[in-house]
């Protein structure tokens, strides 16, 4: 059953107040924020929808904008289905739209418009008890495709590697497959999880665990983000880190009305940039 959280935001936001509320939801949940005669409905990526979109919405409403937000974190594939059937104004995706997804809109005489929401880095995480601190990109590929199955093969303590991944509806699942695995299929031993939070939970309680999460989820208790090809996943190294990616908002056609106002604000305003940075992603607005 989908869970809905409702939060009324009344206080005026300033840059100093960005460190205040850390609103977050889990995949499969919906959050409602603000008040007003018009509602902006976001559906799609939980990488964006669990933390970033709710906290941006909170800051937007608190800074004096009268609009209601309904944000559902359900996976990137849902973004395009919801836009197509008219149940969302704005789609959230951690990957670019596929050609076959675009074709469905073209068939209806519509066109998708893509807005970059920010920059993310897919972090490879291991349990804190694991002594491995760096893997080559080739090692990462070999682990997640199933050709390396024991930590001793990559310099670690002997033990069968427990692999935790996202599921097929996730944009992160497909982007990681492209960036880290050269589009090779995942191994049969991978254990699919609903969201970033669930992967962190599984890896944190399994000494032989490994998984991947968005940058905003990597500094969790019980896990360590390892370097890939010697490069640490930090905002400063985004250009060199091999698993960096853009995050996206999608609309049908050019955004208009309240959707345009919000997307312009979310990608250019310093307050929005501060929120995105606080959440743990890399903002476009400085």
Q: Please, what is the average pLDDT?
A: 92
Q: So, CATH architecture of the largest domain? A: 3-Layer(aba) Sandwich
Query: How many helices does DSSP assign?
Result: 9
Q: C-alpha Rg, in Å?
A: 19 Å
Commentary on this structure:
The protein is an alpha/beta fold. 29% of the residues lie in helices and 25% in strands. It has helices at 46-49, 52-62, 76-85, 99-106, 137-145, 171-181, 196-204, 257-268, 270-279; strands at residues 3-7, 29-34, 39-44, 68-73, 90-93, 112-121, 123-127, 134-135, 162-166, 191-193, 209-213, 223-225, 227-228, 244-252. α2 (52-62) packs antiparallel against α9 (270-279) and α8 crosses α9. It is globular and about 60 Å long.
């Amino acid at each position: 059953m989908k869970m809905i959280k409702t939060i009324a935001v009344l206080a005026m936001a300033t840059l100093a107040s960005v460190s205040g509320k850390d609103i977050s939801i889990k995949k499969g949940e919906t959050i409602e924020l603000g008040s007003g005669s018009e509602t902006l409905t976001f559906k799609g990526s939980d990488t964006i929808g669990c933390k970033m979109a709710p906290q941006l919405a909170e800051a937007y409403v608190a800074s004096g904008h009268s609009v209601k937000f309904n944000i559902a974190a359900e996976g990137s594939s849902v973004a395009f289905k919801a836009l197509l059937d008219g149940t969302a104004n704005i789609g959230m995706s951690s990957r670019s739209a596929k050609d076959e997804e675009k074709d469905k809109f073209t068939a209806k005489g519509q066109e998708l418009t893509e807005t970059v929401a920010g920059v993310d880095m897919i972090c490879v995480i291991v349990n804190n008890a694991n002594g491995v601190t760096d893997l080559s990109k080739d090692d990462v590929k070999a682990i997640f495709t199933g050709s390396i199955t024991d930590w001793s093969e990559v310099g670690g303590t002997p033990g069968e590697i427990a692999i935790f991944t996202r599921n097929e509806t996730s944009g992160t699942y497909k982007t990681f497959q492209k960036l880290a695995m050269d589009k090779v299929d995942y191994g049969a031993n991978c254990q699919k999880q609903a969201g970033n939070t669930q992967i962190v939970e599984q890896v944190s309680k399994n000494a032989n665990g490994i998984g991947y999460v968005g940058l905003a989820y990597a500094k969790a208790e019980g896990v360590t983000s390892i370097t890939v090809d010697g490069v640490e996943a930090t905002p400063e190294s985004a250009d060199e880190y091999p698993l960096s990616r853009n995050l996206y908002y999608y609309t049908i056609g050019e955004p208009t009305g309240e959707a345009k106002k919000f997307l312009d604000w979310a990608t250019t305003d310093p307050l929005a940039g501060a929120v995105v940075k606080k959440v743990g992603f890399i903002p476009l607005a400085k």
